[in-house]
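Re: the pair you flagged

First of the two:
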Amino acid sequence: MTFTTDRISNPVISSLEPIPAAMAAFKRLSTDDKLGVLWFIYDGMGGWVTPAATGAARLQFAEGLLEQVKALSASDQLTFMRDLVVQKNTPMTRAYGVLTNNTKLAFWYQLAELMQAGTVVGVPEYYRLSSAAAEVYQSIVALEFGQQITVLRKVAVNMGYDPFA
């Protein structure tokens, strides 16, 4: 028996298991490349992420953390985001770490909204993804919508520091 597919072969995600392959490719990126990919995904599909992210999320549990982030200087906001990515143990990354999976995804959506509004440090207009990050980004956006949300949720869940893990 032979199976065919209309999918374009992608050098970054060529596995039969697109979600684990996307996660593996994302994990290989640098901290700033991971943040860049997240920014471009939320910027490009933010309107679609919202309903999926907030469906079961209790964003009120993240409101205090979002307020803390807004109160930081721009450089400290960026440091916080980097600390989330590398799972550094800080009071704020622990606060993030105990959020539910859907709330973590909704938190990143809210963070992206705050970045677009200029309340939180955003990605500079001149910023361009590295070639490796651009490949990962293209691979993720080429996935089916449900797979994209699954990858974003897994990325969000793997950030922060969970003191109970």
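Second of the two:
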Amino acid sequence: MKDHQGGCLCGALRFATRGAPEWVTICHCHFCQRTTGAAYAVLPIFARSALSVSGTRPVVHTATSQGSGKQIHIRFCKECGTKISVGFERAPDFVGIYAGAFDAPNWFEISARTTRHIFVASARRGTVIPAGIPTYREHVRDADGAPVPPHVFDLPHTIEA
């Protein structure tokens, strides 16, 4: 399995992931909009055991998700503030890596087979959701853990409101 390297802006915090992500989540929730400063977060999701971190120890900020009421753990560089990863109380065996923190952020596949858009109900107006990708109004699972059926657009869909 190939390792994929990444790190923070100042270079004090480095990481490596082994293999391909389990899936890729593109999250449009307000929390992810705020934490990235962008319209959405692109998070390749890995088994926690596939991530190794070196250099300075990351700082962890814990917040409560408004959607699930569960804790979310953001890890970032204490020197420059670059966000590296996000952990989830809902899925403790997995970790999301902020895609832009990879040295080569385009190495992983984004396709209907590997990717899902979540919280499209909160997506920024003008965001285009590609055709063929599973989308969810909010979470992939409801509060009880039951799967939520996805919606798949036949054509690219622009968020209007």
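The first strand starts at residue 3 and ends at 7.

-B.
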